[in-house]
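ok trying again, last paste got cut off:
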Amino acid sequence: MPDIKHFDPDTALEAVVRLFWRQGVATTGIQDVVTATGLNRSSLYATFGGKQELYLAALRRYQEQWSRPAFRGLAGDGRGLPAVAEFFDALIEVRCSGEHARWGCLVSNAQAGAENGDPEVRAFLHRHHEELRDALYAALVKAEAQGQLAADTEPGATAELLALLAYGVNLRSRTGAHAGSLRETVTAALRSLSSRTAG
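nice, full thing came through this time. structure:
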């Protein structure tokens, strides 16, 4: 007789994402996962595998729910620099206020944590970075076409720079940086890229 799951794996995974996101991987044990999901260990292992497999599943879910919608919105926005500014403003808003304030970003937390020593996690982080960079690049190409960028601003290198700025916002917000301070930094960075005749 086939094994019938008496729980929703999707709901369980959502609880795991929140757990890893809020308190990190290193300090989260399987018993914490059991408590957060209400499942026993055998059900967890049978559905997701061990802690590392569970963490990778959480990273992928976070990417689909949080990262990719923001990246797609940015890449598809035709306004150029105003779209980049709005992207960062929304990032700071979610990092510094509301339900997930001071949790940082699950992906950026992995960039800074020991968990990135795992080859599968490292490969995931590399792909995620490429998606972030490519979205920023798309917006900067539109900005360049509209004459919004300073003459010596190269979209490819600048997209890498802004991706690093996004990681910085995520990590600094987790350690208590104020939204106003983060916005001032982002504003200064974008101002340095902007053509004096733009706007």
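cool. The radius of gyration is 19 Å. The domain at 9-193 is CATH 1.10.357.10 (Tetracycline Repressor; domain 2).
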